[in-house]
Design brief:
Layout: E1 5-10, E2 13-19, H1 29-33, E3 39-41, E4 53-55, H2 65-69, E5 75-76, H3 81-88
Antiparallel strand pairs: 1-2, 2-5, 3-4
Length: about 90
């Protein structure tokens, strides 16, 4: 388990989705709605005293449900001009 990375596979392009563990409030919505049960609480505590989520990259199918359902913006997709030019060309 990596705990911080998820990869979305879009039309042959792998898009990295990151987890901001410090934003996680342990609500469990992403865990409950993950169709592959690829998300779980980690054993560590973040700065706010919550157990942030971690992702089993082997089980993750990159459906984006976690990104969509999270009320705290824990999941994000960094986009840089350099990456877009390299990946989309």
């Amino acid at each position: 388990m990596s705990g911080t990375n998820i990869y979305w596979r879009l039309e042959g392009i792998i898009v990295k989705v990151n987890v901001k563990q410090e934003r996680c409030k342990e609500c469990g919505l992403c865990i409950y709605h993950c169709p592959r049960q690829a998300i779980s609480k980690s054993g560590m505590l973040n700065a706010n005293g919550y157990h942030p989520v971690q992702v089993n990259d082997e089980a993750c199918i990159a459906c984006g449900m976690c990104y969509t359902i999270c009320p705290d913006g824990v999941f994000y997709i960094p986009v840089s001009q350099d990456r877009k030019e390299r990946d989309l060309s």
